[in-house]
Amino acid sequence: MKHRPMIVSYILLIWFAISFITNLIGPLMPIAIQDFKLSLTMAGFMPFSFFLAYGLISIPGGILIEVRGTRLTLFTAFALNFIGALAIAVMPGYVSVVAGLFVIGLGMALLQVVINPLMRTAAGEEHFAFFSVMAQLVFGLASFLSPLAFRLYMQRPGIEGQPLAWLTFYWFFSAAFVLLALLNYKLPLPKVELKDDERTGSRDAYRSLLRRVDVRLYFLGIVAYVGTEQSLANWMSQFLHSYHGMSATEQGAIAVSRFWGLMSLGCLAGLGLLKLLDSKQVLAIFSTLAIVCLGLALFGTAEISLLAFPAAGFFLSVMFSVIFSLGLNSVSQHHGAFSGILCSGILGGAVVPLLIGLIADHWGLRVGLSLVFIPLLYILSVSAWARPLVRNQTLYSGKNTPASP
Protein backbone atom coordinates (compact mmCIF):
# COMPACT_ATOMS: atom_id res chain seq x y z
CA MET A 1 0.00 0.00 0.00
CA LYS A 2 1.51 3.31 -1.18
CA HIS A 3 0.49 5.43 1.81
CA ARG A 4 0.87 2.73 4.49
CA PRO A 5 3.43 4.56 6.73
CA MET A 6 1.31 7.73 6.77
CA ILE A 7 -1.94 5.91 7.56
CA VAL A 8 -0.38 3.68 10.22
CA SER A 9 1.17 6.78 11.84
CA TYR A 10 -2.25 8.43 11.81
CA ILE A 11 -3.80 5.40 13.55
CA LEU A 12 -1.04 5.39 16.17
CA LEU A 13 -1.68 9.12 16.73
CA ILE A 14 -5.34 8.31 17.38
CA TRP A 15 -4.34 5.64 19.92
CA PHE A 16 -2.11 8.20 21.64
CA ALA A 17 -4.98 10.73 21.81
CA ILE A 18 -7.44 8.14 23.17
CA SER A 19 -5.08 7.13 25.96
CA PHE A 20 -3.85 10.61 26.86
CA ILE A 21 -7.35 12.08 27.17
CA THR A 22 -8.94 9.07 28.88
CA ASN A 23 -6.24 8.76 31.52
CA LEU A 24 -6.40 12.41 32.53
CA ILE A 25 -9.59 11.67 34.51
CA GLY A 26 -7.70 9.93 37.35
CA PRO A 27 -5.38 12.78 38.39
CA LEU A 28 -8.15 15.30 37.67
CA MET A 29 -10.61 13.78 40.17
CA PRO A 30 -9.21 15.32 43.41
CA ILE A 31 -8.87 18.73 41.74
CA ALA A 32 -12.45 18.61 40.43
CA ILE A 33 -13.67 17.61 43.91
CA GLN A 34 -11.95 20.68 45.31
CA ASP A 35 -12.95 23.11 42.54
CA PHE A 36 -16.62 22.09 42.40
CA LYS A 37 -16.96 21.26 46.13
CA LEU A 38 -18.15 17.74 45.28
CA SER A 39 -19.06 14.79 47.46
CA LEU A 40 -17.27 11.57 46.50
CA THR A 41 -20.51 10.22 45.05
CA MET A 42 -20.84 13.24 42.78
CA ALA A 43 -17.19 12.87 41.75
CA GLY A 44 -17.90 9.23 40.91
CA PHE A 45 -20.31 10.37 38.21
CA MET A 46 -17.35 11.68 36.17
CA PRO A 47 -15.89 8.26 35.29
CA PHE A 48 -19.43 6.85 35.39
CA SER A 49 -20.60 9.07 32.53
CA PHE A 50 -17.47 8.42 30.47
CA PHE A 51 -17.49 4.63 30.73
CA LEU A 52 -21.25 4.31 30.55
CA ALA A 53 -20.87 5.77 27.05
CA TYR A 54 -18.27 3.11 26.25
CA GLY A 55 -20.62 0.33 27.28
CA LEU A 56 -23.58 1.74 25.37
CA ILE A 57 -21.89 2.45 22.03
CA SER A 58 -19.72 -0.65 21.43
CA ILE A 59 -22.32 -2.67 19.53
CA PRO A 60 -24.01 0.28 17.70
CA GLY A 61 -20.51 1.44 16.69
CA GLY A 62 -19.87 -1.86 14.92
CA ILE A 63 -23.17 -1.51 13.07
CA LEU A 64 -22.25 2.03 11.98
CA ILE A 65 -18.97 0.79 10.45
CA GLU A 66 -20.79 -1.91 8.51
CA VAL A 67 -23.52 0.43 7.22
CA ARG A 68 -21.66 3.72 6.63
CA GLY A 69 -17.97 2.81 6.45
CA THR A 70 -14.74 3.78 8.19
CA ARG A 71 -14.33 7.44 7.22
CA LEU A 72 -17.81 8.53 8.35
CA THR A 73 -17.46 6.57 11.59
CA LEU A 74 -14.15 8.31 12.31
CA PHE A 75 -15.64 11.71 11.51
CA THR A 76 -18.62 11.02 13.78
CA ALA A 77 -16.26 10.02 16.59
CA PHE A 78 -14.13 13.16 16.21
CA ALA A 79 -17.25 15.36 16.07
CA LEU A 80 -18.52 13.85 19.33
CA ASN A 81 -15.11 14.25 20.97
CA PHE A 82 -14.90 17.87 19.83
CA ILE A 83 -18.40 18.71 21.11
CA GLY A 84 -17.72 17.08 24.49
CA ALA A 85 -14.32 18.73 25.00
CA LEU A 86 -15.60 22.14 23.90
CA ALA A 87 -18.60 21.90 26.23
CA ILE A 88 -16.26 21.35 29.18
CA ALA A 89 -13.94 24.18 28.14
CA VAL A 90 -16.66 26.75 27.35
CA MET A 91 -19.15 26.00 30.14
CA PRO A 92 -17.07 25.15 33.24
CA GLY A 93 -19.31 23.51 35.75
CA TYR A 94 -19.97 20.11 37.26
CA VAL A 95 -22.97 19.29 35.04
CA SER A 96 -21.19 20.30 31.83
CA VAL A 97 -18.13 18.23 32.80
CA VAL A 98 -20.25 15.12 33.42
CA ALA A 99 -22.20 15.65 30.19
CA GLY A 100 -19.05 16.48 28.24
CA LEU A 101 -17.27 13.34 29.47
CA PHE A 102 -20.27 11.26 28.39
CA VAL A 103 -20.12 12.69 24.86
CA ILE A 104 -16.33 12.24 24.73
CA GLY A 105 -16.83 8.65 25.88
CA LEU A 106 -19.19 8.02 22.96
CA GLY A 107 -16.56 9.32 20.56
CA MET A 108 -13.72 7.35 22.15
CA ALA A 109 -15.71 4.12 22.02
CA LEU A 110 -16.41 4.65 18.32
CA LEU A 111 -12.71 5.23 17.70
CA GLN A 112 -11.74 2.01 19.46
CA VAL A 113 -14.30 0.05 17.45
CA VAL A 114 -13.07 1.36 14.09
CA ILE A 115 -9.30 1.64 14.31
CA ASN A 116 -8.50 -2.04 14.92
CA PRO A 117 -9.95 -3.20 11.57
CA LEU A 118 -8.51 -0.06 9.98
CA MET A 119 -5.05 -0.96 11.29
CA ARG A 120 -5.41 -4.53 10.04
CA THR A 121 -6.33 -3.28 6.57
CA ALA A 122 -3.72 -0.52 6.40
CA ALA A 123 -0.82 -2.55 7.81
CA GLY A 124 -1.73 -5.81 6.07
CA GLU A 125 -2.51 -9.15 7.71
CA GLU A 126 1.16 -10.16 7.75
CA HIS A 127 2.17 -7.05 9.74
CA PHE A 128 -0.93 -6.68 11.91
CA ALA A 129 0.51 -8.42 14.99
CA PHE A 130 3.60 -6.19 14.94
CA PHE A 131 1.63 -2.96 14.62
CA SER A 132 -0.88 -4.11 17.28
CA VAL A 133 2.02 -4.41 19.73
CA MET A 134 3.30 -1.01 18.59
CA ALA A 135 -0.15 0.48 19.20
CA GLN A 136 -0.11 -1.11 22.65
CA LEU A 137 3.22 0.58 23.41
CA VAL A 138 2.00 3.95 22.09
CA PHE A 139 -1.13 3.63 24.21
CA GLY A 140 0.99 2.80 27.26
CA LEU A 141 3.33 5.72 26.63
CA ALA A 142 0.41 8.16 26.41
CA SER A 143 -1.19 6.78 29.59
CA PHE A 144 2.14 7.25 31.38
CA LEU A 145 2.68 10.79 30.07
CA SER A 146 -0.87 12.09 30.62
CA PRO A 147 -0.72 12.39 34.45
CA LEU A 148 2.82 13.76 34.23
CA ALA A 149 1.73 16.47 31.78
CA PHE A 150 -1.14 17.30 34.15
CA ARG A 151 1.32 17.55 37.05
CA LEU A 152 3.74 19.79 35.16
CA TYR A 153 1.01 22.15 33.99
CA MET A 154 -0.75 22.39 37.34
CA GLN A 155 2.52 23.25 39.11
CA ARG A 156 3.48 26.09 36.78
CA PRO A 157 3.95 29.51 38.48
CA GLY A 158 0.63 31.32 38.56
CA ILE A 159 -1.32 28.12 37.85
CA GLU A 160 -0.89 26.15 41.06
CA GLY A 161 -3.94 26.57 43.26
CA GLN A 162 -5.85 28.49 40.61
CA PRO A 163 -9.44 27.16 40.29
CA LEU A 164 -10.36 25.47 37.01
CA ALA A 165 -6.85 25.89 35.56
CA TRP A 166 -7.16 22.34 34.14
CA LEU A 167 -9.82 23.53 31.66
CA THR A 168 -6.94 24.55 29.39
CA PHE A 169 -6.43 20.87 28.59
CA TYR A 170 -9.91 20.66 27.08
CA TRP A 171 -9.24 23.64 24.82
CA PHE A 172 -6.20 21.77 23.52
CA PHE A 173 -8.24 18.57 23.14
CA SER A 174 -10.88 20.42 21.10
CA ALA A 175 -8.17 21.67 18.73
CA ALA A 176 -6.62 18.20 18.52
CA PHE A 177 -9.92 16.64 17.44
CA VAL A 178 -10.36 19.27 14.73
CA LEU A 179 -6.88 18.40 13.43
CA LEU A 180 -7.61 14.65 13.49
CA ALA A 181 -10.90 15.23 11.65
CA LEU A 182 -9.08 17.25 8.94
CA LEU A 183 -6.53 14.46 8.55
CA ASN A 184 -9.39 11.97 8.28
CA TYR A 185 -10.80 14.06 5.41
CA LYS A 186 -7.45 14.39 3.59
CA LEU A 187 -5.79 10.99 4.04
CA PRO A 188 -6.43 8.21 1.49
CA LEU A 189 -7.85 5.74 3.98
CA PRO A 190 -8.34 2.20 2.63
CA LYS A 191 -11.75 0.58 2.40
CA VAL A 192 -12.17 -1.79 5.34
CA GLU A 193 -13.68 -5.22 4.82
CA LEU A 194 -14.65 -6.57 8.21
CA LYS A 195 -13.73 -10.16 9.03
CA ASP A 196 -16.36 -12.48 10.44
CA ASP A 197 -15.08 -12.00 14.01
CA GLU A 198 -15.31 -8.20 13.59
CA ARG A 199 -18.93 -8.10 12.42
CA THR A 200 -21.62 -7.30 14.92
CA GLY A 201 -23.81 -10.31 14.18
CA SER A 202 -27.55 -10.74 13.91
CA ARG A 203 -30.15 -10.27 16.61
CA ASP A 204 -30.56 -14.05 16.74
CA ALA A 205 -26.83 -14.43 17.36
CA TYR A 206 -27.03 -12.15 20.40
CA ARG A 207 -30.09 -13.99 21.72
CA SER A 208 -28.33 -17.32 21.29
CA LEU A 209 -25.22 -16.14 23.09
CA LEU A 210 -26.99 -14.39 25.96
CA ARG A 211 -28.87 -17.59 26.79
CA ARG A 212 -25.53 -19.21 27.67
CA VAL A 213 -24.38 -19.04 31.28
CA ASP A 214 -20.68 -19.00 30.33
CA VAL A 215 -21.19 -15.98 28.04
CA ARG A 216 -22.78 -14.04 30.89
CA LEU A 217 -19.97 -15.09 33.25
CA TYR A 218 -17.25 -13.91 30.85
CA PHE A 219 -19.16 -10.64 30.38
CA LEU A 220 -19.06 -10.19 34.15
CA GLY A 221 -15.33 -10.95 34.01
CA ILE A 222 -14.79 -7.94 31.72
CA VAL A 223 -17.05 -5.83 33.96
CA ALA A 224 -14.94 -6.89 36.96
CA TYR A 225 -11.64 -6.12 35.23
CA VAL A 226 -12.53 -2.68 33.87
CA GLY A 227 -14.27 -1.78 37.12
CA THR A 228 -11.09 -2.66 39.05
CA GLU A 229 -8.76 -0.84 36.66
CA GLN A 230 -10.77 2.38 36.58
CA SER A 231 -11.52 2.38 40.30
CA LEU A 232 -7.83 2.27 41.16
CA ALA A 233 -6.81 4.73 38.45
CA ASN A 234 -9.52 7.24 39.38
CA TRP A 235 -9.49 7.00 43.17
CA MET A 236 -5.85 6.36 44.14
CA SER A 237 -4.87 10.03 43.99
CA GLN A 238 -7.78 11.02 46.23
CA PHE A 239 -6.95 8.16 48.61
CA LEU A 240 -3.31 9.24 48.90
CA HIS A 241 -4.47 12.81 49.57
CA SER A 242 -7.16 11.88 52.11
CA TYR A 243 -5.24 9.29 54.16
CA HIS A 244 -1.60 10.27 53.71
CA GLY A 245 -1.79 14.01 53.02
CA MET A 246 -0.10 13.74 49.63
CA SER A 247 -0.56 16.39 46.96
CA ALA A 248 -2.95 15.43 44.16
CA THR A 249 -0.84 17.33 41.62
CA GLU A 250 2.47 15.87 42.87
CA GLN A 251 2.60 12.39 44.43
CA GLY A 252 -0.97 11.58 43.34
CA ALA A 253 -0.33 12.35 39.68
CA ILE A 254 2.99 10.48 39.78
CA ALA A 255 1.28 7.41 41.29
CA VAL A 256 -1.33 7.39 38.51
CA SER A 257 1.40 7.76 35.89
CA ARG A 258 3.35 4.84 37.36
CA PHE A 259 0.16 2.76 37.52
CA TRP A 260 -0.29 3.05 33.74
CA GLY A 261 3.42 2.74 33.04
CA LEU A 262 3.70 -0.48 35.03
CA MET A 263 0.57 -1.78 33.34
CA SER A 264 2.33 -1.43 29.98
CA LEU A 265 5.42 -3.21 31.31
CA GLY A 266 3.17 -5.89 32.76
CA CYS A 267 1.67 -6.51 29.32
CA LEU A 268 5.14 -7.24 27.95
CA ALA A 269 6.07 -9.44 30.92
CA GLY A 270 2.74 -11.22 30.65
CA LEU A 271 3.33 -12.01 26.99
CA GLY A 272 6.59 -13.70 27.99
CA LEU A 273 4.96 -15.67 30.80
CA LEU A 274 2.18 -16.82 28.50
CA LYS A 275 4.83 -18.57 26.39
CA LEU A 276 5.84 -20.59 29.44
CA LEU A 277 2.62 -21.07 31.42
CA ASP A 278 -1.03 -21.74 30.66
CA SER A 279 -3.11 -18.56 30.43
CA LYS A 280 -5.29 -19.70 33.34
CA GLN A 281 -2.20 -20.04 35.54
CA VAL A 282 -0.98 -16.57 34.56
CA LEU A 283 -4.44 -15.14 35.32
CA ALA A 284 -4.47 -16.85 38.73
CA ILE A 285 -0.96 -15.64 39.65
CA PHE A 286 -1.53 -12.06 38.50
CA SER A 287 -4.98 -11.74 40.12
CA THR A 288 -3.63 -13.11 43.44
CA LEU A 289 -0.75 -10.63 43.41
CA ALA A 290 -3.13 -7.79 42.47
CA ILE A 291 -5.21 -8.64 45.55
CA VAL A 292 -2.06 -8.52 47.70
CA CYS A 293 -1.10 -5.13 46.22
CA LEU A 294 -4.58 -3.75 46.86
CA GLY A 295 -4.40 -4.85 50.50
CA LEU A 296 -1.00 -3.20 50.95
CA ALA A 297 -2.20 -0.02 49.22
CA LEU A 298 -5.28 0.34 51.41
CA PHE A 299 -3.85 -0.72 54.78
CA GLY A 300 -0.11 -0.07 54.51
CA THR A 301 1.90 3.00 55.45
CA ALA A 302 2.10 6.03 53.18
CA GLU A 303 5.34 4.77 51.61
CA ILE A 304 3.91 1.30 51.00
CA SER A 305 0.64 2.68 49.63
CA LEU A 306 2.53 4.91 47.20
CA LEU A 307 4.31 1.84 45.82
CA ALA A 308 1.48 -0.69 46.02
CA PHE A 309 -1.11 1.24 43.99
CA PRO A 310 1.11 1.43 40.89
CA ALA A 311 2.30 -2.16 41.42
CA ALA A 312 -1.33 -3.29 41.19
CA GLY A 313 -1.33 -1.93 37.62
CA PHE A 314 1.46 -4.34 36.70
CA PHE A 315 -0.61 -7.32 37.81
CA LEU A 316 -3.84 -6.09 36.22
CA SER A 317 -2.11 -5.84 32.84
CA VAL A 318 -2.90 -9.25 31.31
CA MET A 319 -6.41 -9.68 32.67
CA PHE A 320 -8.43 -8.11 29.86
CA SER A 321 -6.69 -10.03 27.08
CA VAL A 322 -6.77 -13.36 28.91
CA ILE A 323 -10.44 -13.11 29.95
CA PHE A 324 -11.44 -11.96 26.45
CA SER A 325 -9.53 -14.80 24.79
CA LEU A 326 -10.86 -17.42 27.21
CA GLY A 327 -14.35 -16.15 26.45
CA LEU A 328 -13.98 -16.31 22.67
CA ASN A 329 -12.42 -19.76 23.04
CA SER A 330 -15.59 -20.97 24.78
CA VAL A 331 -17.83 -20.56 21.70
CA SER A 332 -17.47 -22.00 18.22
CA GLN A 333 -19.40 -19.32 16.31
CA HIS A 334 -20.76 -15.76 16.49
CA HIS A 335 -17.35 -14.41 17.61
CA GLY A 336 -18.15 -10.92 16.31
CA ALA A 337 -21.37 -10.73 18.33
CA PHE A 338 -19.62 -12.16 21.39
CA SER A 339 -16.84 -9.56 21.06
CA GLY A 340 -19.52 -6.86 21.09
CA ILE A 341 -21.07 -8.31 24.24
CA LEU A 342 -17.70 -8.50 25.98
CA CYS A 343 -16.74 -4.96 24.93
CA SER A 344 -20.00 -3.74 26.45
CA GLY A 345 -18.56 -4.99 29.74
CA ILE A 346 -16.45 -1.82 29.71
CA LEU A 347 -19.42 -0.27 31.53
CA GLY A 348 -17.84 -1.81 34.62
CA GLY A 349 -15.61 1.26 34.54
CA ALA A 350 -18.77 3.30 35.05
CA VAL A 351 -20.49 1.30 37.78
CA VAL A 352 -17.73 0.29 40.19
CA PRO A 353 -16.07 3.74 40.68
CA LEU A 354 -19.51 5.24 41.29
CA LEU A 355 -20.35 2.61 43.92
CA ILE A 356 -17.01 3.32 45.60
CA GLY A 357 -17.84 7.04 45.78
CA LEU A 358 -21.27 6.26 47.24
CA ILE A 359 -19.81 3.97 49.92
CA ALA A 360 -16.93 6.37 50.62
CA ASP A 361 -19.31 9.25 51.43
CA HIS A 362 -20.76 7.15 54.26
CA TRP A 363 -17.86 5.05 55.55
CA GLY A 364 -14.70 6.51 54.03
CA LEU A 365 -12.69 5.91 50.88
CA ARG A 366 -10.71 3.03 52.42
CA VAL A 367 -13.94 1.09 52.91
CA GLY A 368 -15.15 2.16 49.47
CA LEU A 369 -12.00 0.96 47.71
CA SER A 370 -12.21 -2.31 49.63
CA LEU A 371 -15.12 -3.05 47.29
CA VAL A 372 -12.48 -3.73 44.60
CA PHE A 373 -11.58 -6.99 46.36
CA ILE A 374 -14.87 -8.44 45.07
CA PRO A 375 -14.18 -8.09 41.31
CA LEU A 376 -10.58 -9.23 41.82
CA LEU A 377 -11.79 -12.36 43.60
CA TYR A 378 -14.24 -12.94 40.76
CA ILE A 379 -11.39 -12.71 38.23
CA LEU A 380 -9.44 -15.21 40.34
CA SER A 381 -12.43 -17.55 40.14
CA VAL A 382 -12.44 -17.23 36.32
CA SER A 383 -8.96 -18.77 36.30
CA ALA A 384 -10.40 -21.80 38.09
CA TRP A 385 -13.49 -22.59 35.98
CA ALA A 386 -12.65 -21.26 32.50
CA ARG A 387 -11.86 -23.71 29.72
CA PRO A 388 -8.13 -23.57 28.80
CA LEU A 389 -7.16 -21.79 25.59
CA VAL A 390 -6.51 -23.89 22.53
CA ARG A 391 -2.79 -24.56 22.35
CA ASN A 392 -0.90 -21.77 20.56
CA GLN A 393 -4.06 -19.67 20.24
CA THR A 394 -3.26 -15.96 19.94
CA LEU A 395 -4.52 -13.81 22.78
CA TYR A 396 -7.05 -11.16 21.90
CA SER A 397 -5.27 -7.83 21.45
CA GLY A 398 -8.11 -5.54 20.47
CA LYS A 399 -7.86 -3.42 23.59
CA ASN A 400 -5.38 -2.42 26.22
CA THR A 401 -7.96 -0.83 28.51
CA PRO A 402 -10.16 2.11 27.51
CA ALA A 403 -8.80 1.53 27.84
CA SER A 404 -6.02 -0.02 25.17
CA PRO A 405 -5.66 -1.35 21.66
Description:
The protein is mainly α. The chain contains 17 helices and no strands. The protein has helices at 4-22, 25-36, 40-68, 70-90, 94-123, 128-154, 167-186, 203-210, 213-244, 248-276, 279-299, 302-316, 319-329, 335-344, 348-363, 365-370, 373-385. Pfam families: MFS_1. It is found in: Cell inner membrane.
Helix content: over 70%
Rg calculated over all Cα atoms: 20 Å
**What is the succession of H and E elements?**
HHHHHHHHHHHHHHHHH
Number of helices: 17
In total, the number of strands is 0
Unreliable residue runs: 398-405
Oligomeric assembly: single chain
How far from one another are the termini? 22 Å
What sort of overall outline do the alpha carbons produce when their principal axes are compared?
Answer: globular
- Which structural class do the helices and strands define? mainly alpha
Described by strand count, sense and barrel closure, the largest sheet is: none
Beta-strand proportion: under 5%
Output mean pLDDT.
89
Provide a short characterization of the protein structure.
With 405 residues, the protein is mostly helical. Helices cover 79% and strands 0% of the residues. InterPro entries: MFS, MFS_dom, MFS_trans_sf, MFS_TsgA-like.
